[in-house]
Every structure is written in structure tokens, then in C-alpha cells.
Design a protein that fits this description.
alpha/beta, Arc Repressor Mutant, subunit A, D-Maltodextrin-Binding Protein, domain 2, 3 domains, five-stranded mixed β-sheet, sequence-specific DNA binding
Amino acid sequence: MPVRQDPPGTRTLEAFVRAAEASSLSVAAKTLGLTQSAVSQRIASLERQLGARLFLRTPAGVILTSVGEAYLPAVRTALDGLRHAQERIVSRKTAVRLSVVPSFARCWLLPRLGKLATAHPDVDIVLHVSDERVEVDDGGYDLAVRLSRSAADSIRLFDDGEDERVVVVARSTRIVSDADDPFAGLTLYHDDCSRLGVPAEQGWTQWYEATERSRPAWAPGIVVNDASMAAGAAIAGQGVALVRRLLVRDHLLDGTLATLGPPLPHAGRTTLITRRRTTRTASADRVADWLVDEASRGCAEKADPAPDHAHPNP
């Protein structure tokens, strides 16, 4: 079995590349800030390690041997790869990779991205939008916002009131609030929470039961895996949506939407997942603090122009 040899050091390889490019040991030495003797010793050491001559010495300088010519492209590629890898690692110190679920991204984060950028102009936010499970400690993300049935090992961003599910309807949508079925003829939109162990149809069934109404078997309904679509449909007057309050809080505050009936308990909590303290960066901590503060500020805004359980005019 051949004896494994460690690769040459980067300083030795750099001396080889500089000498090959300049065809001169003295020029290579000046470029590297070394003496000519030091460069010569490094190249000699490399040749001994490889068991081959890389240069021919001439009165005019040095020229590559056939072995040296074959070796040079590989060394350049290796050094360039190391430099690029180092640059990426260094640049990551000012970048924060944030993964968020689509509904949170569109309904809550997007209107606040400008504020986040202004608050931390020295941080590059790399935003990843997906509802797939991600790893922060062993994966490529610094922070992640996910809907979870348990807040263990994560930070709750919102209080229970914001994660409650509420029925919302556009003020322009005509309903009969005191009818047995106030949404007769309207499409019912709701989020698919089956990934949290909640049956897709359970939300609307709970709402009808909580208001002591019977949901008609023929009521049209659309299940979406992105709650922002349900919220958007309600805002556009295309139906009624059952969504988490935090996703429509801004539209409740400006009066675009109103709620009807009692809220339902949350199906999961919106949580912020962070790296272990030993692997977190200062930039990620600052962005995490901003998200927590901004979420708390939103929870404190209770002055809805359309109070909870308000009934739009028929």
C-alpha cells in the first residue's frame, strides 16, 4: 500500500505559481515579499516532495519543465478554489440567511423588509421562502420562521392572540351576518394545516360549531397550502378566509378586512428558530432581535378600526 503524502502548503504552491508566471525567482520573491533564497528553498522543497523537477534554471531565469507545465494548471485551480472559499466564508459574516414560510413572507415580512434593511444596512439578508423543514445548525440557514405545534428550542414571535385563526371578509363583500349561514353563496378559503396534524376541514367545522350554526354540505370551499392565498382572496372580495390573525393584522388595522364570529385556537405557533449560541453570528442575533421586537410591536397594536367579531353590513 502506498504511503499517503500530505499535499504541499499553500505558501509553497504560491511560490511555484509566481515563479512560473514571471519565469524569474527574483521577480517572484518581490511579488511575495520574500528573499530570492526563500523562494528558491520553497521550490526546491516542492520538487523533493514531488520527486520531480519543475523548473530548468537558465542564466535568464527559470522555465517550466514538462512536469511543471502539467502541474501548474492544477495548482492554480486549487489555489483559486481556496481563495474563493475563504472569500465566501468571510462574506458570510455580514450575511444572514433567513428561511420563512410563504404565508409569513408575503403577509407579514414583505411589508416590513424595507424597515429591516434600514435598521441593519450593514447586513445582507438572504431570504429563502419555503414551507419545507430546514436545518439551521447543520444546514445553510442562520434563522428560520416556521409554524410549529411546540415552541421548544425556538422563540415564539407572537402571542396566542396573533396565532389564533379568525374568519375575515372584505368590507365590500355583502353577507347576512345574522343568517344561519352568513356566507351563503360565498367560497370558504382555509389553510391546509395537515402538516401540523390538523385535518384540512376541521377549521371551518369548528367555526360553525362555535357560532352554533350548521355548515351546509354544499358550501363551496378551497383549501390552499399557502395561507397568503386565502387572505388575498378575502381581500379581493372573492370569498371568506379562515387564517391566522397575524397574517391579516395590517388589513384589519386599515379597515380593509373585518372579522366575523369568535376566533379559533391556534393550530400551531409561529416560532423563530436560531442556531446554537456557539455557532450564531452577531449579525444573525441582531436580525433575530429585530424580528422579535417588530412582532411584539405588532401584537401591541390593538386599535383595530374593525373590532374583532365585527359584522360587515349586509
